[in-house]
Structure formats: structure tokens, C-alpha cells
Amino acid sequence: MRVLVIGGTLFIGKLLVKRLLAGGHEVTILHRKAEHPFGRRVKNCVADRNDADSVRGALAGHRFDAVYDIAYDWERGTTGAQVEATAKAIPGDLSRYIFMSSVAAYGDGLNHSEDDPLASDIHPDAYVRNKAGSERALFRMYHESRFPVVTMRPPFVYGPDNPFYREAFFWDRLRFDRPLMIPGDGNRLMQFVYVNDLVEACFNALEKHTAPGRAFNVAEEKPLTQVEAVTELAKAAGKPANIVRVPREIIARNGGNATTPPLYFGQNLDLPPITEVVGRVKRVLNISITPFAAGLKETFKWYGKHLPAKKPDFSFDDKLIRLAKETSRAIPGI
User: Fold this and answer.
1) Structure pTM?
2) Confidence of residue 334 (pLDDT cuts 50, 70, 90)
3) Looking at residues 10-35, what average pLDDT do you find?
4) What whole-number distance in Å separates Cα of residue 206 and Cα of residue 281?
5) Is the four-CA dihedral 243, 249, 254, 259 of positive or negative sign?
6) What is the C-alpha to C-alpha distance for residues 246 and 326, in angstroms, rounded to an integer?
7) What is the distance between the alpha carbons of residues 66 and 4, in angstroms, rounded to a whole number?
8) Paired residues of 6 in beta bridges
9) What is the pLDDT averaged over residues 222-228?
């Protein structure tokens, strides 16, 4: 197939391009840079994915059989209207349009199945609004014209080459025998998926005739508490998890941020929990989900080969841990 990958040079996209090439497909990537790391086997088109006219111009003269839309503009956001306009700008008689959504599209709540309603257009979080709105637009196209959309809803994706400071956040601290901070009681639930499993689901959706018009939750079935996840990360590193609980009030009062520095926990990992039920992706796309411990083992091997040259700055950790200990001494029975 002639396959267009919107994005394709980071983490999920990079692995997906390699999988498509291994599967014998002709791959073109569309992104904002004039070069890519794949050599001559992969064609390059330069455009702003949020600008349909830019996309249309960049793809003039091409035709595609399938599209993977995995690029999200983290600075400006990518709205449902922009995703729809881009989808309509792709030349060719498409048999698949596989869109990378997120468990965040549900907005909130636990144990979501694929047929549950998505978050509303007035949800306070722009990322949630955009992912939910993009899916609504694409599925509307499916119902109106049988546009062959398939959407993927992963939770936290982990694995080698992760650009988010998640697994490495904890392994950097374990490497120097540092304590690991846990916000509050550490019982917030998190759900993960190994990047290879997500890519395999995307790849299998390419030719599965029952995939169009459907969404797929792609995750390890059992959500973990924050304490359980950190404990597994420590096991993968072969280190004991020296856990220190830090009250959320202390974190907030001192400017701790879940998404950008100063981080106190893995990037984005201290958010209100959203979890999903996994089953359809196994039945329809024949995916086996990698156990968290096994995926972390492989990821830690990669981490060991890519250690940062400079020792991380742990001063913010030290401050929060000191304040937490002072608070516990000041409260009888703590």
C-alpha cells in the first residue's frame, strides 16, 4: 500500500514507520521538517498538519491508499475541525484513515468501553476537547460517506525512546539511590500500554476489514496505583523503591507541576484517573498485550544505553521531601 504517516519521526511514529517498511509498504511522511531519519526508502512532504491548504499543497501529485494521523500540535493544539480538514485534503481512494486518539477522549471516569460517550466540547481541558472532537468529526464522516476511519485510544504509552520524561524520571533517581516521591496517598490509578503493542494494533488495523468505523482501547488490562507503578519501575531497575509520600498541598504550594518543570513525578502521570476496558483490540486486531514488567525490562535496557551526560538537578525533590518530613513531625501520630 501507499501509506501516508502524518508525523512519524518521534516515538510511536518512528516505530510505526519502521513496521510499515518491514511490512513492504511504500511510506511517505508529512511533517514540518525538511528531513527525516529513514533514508531514501521514505518520501518526505513538508506541511503544517493544522493547515489543510498547506497539507493539500504538499501532497499535490501524490495518491495514497491509507493514512496514519498521529501528529498533535502540543503548542497550539489540533482541533477536530483541523483534523477533519486535513482528512479531506488527502488525495487518493483511501481504504483506511487510522487516527491516534487517547483515553483522554473519555474526559474522566473509570472502566470505559469503546461505545461510551466521549467528553463534551466544553470540557475544560483543551487536549481532551480536541481528541474527543476529532473523533466525533471523523466518525461523522464515516456515517455520512463511509470514510474508513479507525481510532486508537491508548492511555500512557511507554517504551524505548519515549520523549516524555516518565520512566526516565524515576530511573534517574534510582540510579543515584534517591528517594521516590509519591503525591498524596499514591492511590490514583494509571493505565499503560507498551509502544510496540500500540504500533502492532495500528499495523493490523490497516487490512482488517472489520476495523473501519470502530474505536479501539489499547492498554494493559489492569490499571495500577501510582505506588504499584513506581514499585514496578524500581524492580525493572533492580533497585529498592524508597518511597516518600508528599502531601499534594505542599506540592501545589511550592509550584510543583504535573506537566512541565518543576516536575515532582513522571510527566503527566499525576492526573485525575481515566481507565478503559480492553477486549475489542484483542478480538478484532489479534493483539497480545505485553505485561508491564516485561515492557519495562526492555525499556530499561534502552535507558541504560542512553543515560544523560549531566546529573539531573534534584534540588526541587529535596525541598519537597524536606517539607513533607517537617510536616509529618509537626502532626502528632504522623
Assistant:
1) 0.96
2) very low
3) 96
4) 13
5) positive
6) 11
7) 6
8) 30, 69
9) 98
Contact between 9 and 36 under an 8 Å Cβ cutoff? The reply is yes
Structural contact between residues 27 and 1, judged by C-beta atoms closer than 8 angstroms: no
CA atoms of 114 and 104, how far apart (whole Å): 12
What is the Cα–Cα distance from 140 to 258, expressed in whole angstroms?
A: 34
Q: Exposed, middle or buried, 73 (CB in 10 Å: 0-12/13-18/19+)?
A: middle
What is the C-alpha separation between 117 and 105, in angstroms, rounded?
A: 9
The Cα 303–Cα 299 span in angstroms is 6
For the chain, helix, strand, coil in percent to 5 are 40, 20, 45
The H or E element containing residue 43 is strand 42-46
- The mean of the pLDDT values for the chain is 96
Residue 229 pLDDT greater than 80, yes or no? yes
Give the separation between CA 32 and CA 242, rounded to whole angstroms: 43
**Would you call 26 helix, strand, or coil by DSSP?**
strand
Q: What is the dihedral of CA 52, 55, 57, 58, to 10 degrees?
A: 170
What is the C-alpha to C-alpha distance for residues 192 and 205, in angstroms, rounded to an integer? 20
Q: Which residues of 268-279 are buried (b: 16+ CB within 10 A; e: fewer)?
A: bbbeebbbbebe
Q: How many CB atoms lie within 10 A of CB 161?
A: 14
Collapse the DSSP code of 100 into the 3-class scheme (helix H, G, I; strand E, B; otherwise coil) and give the result. strand
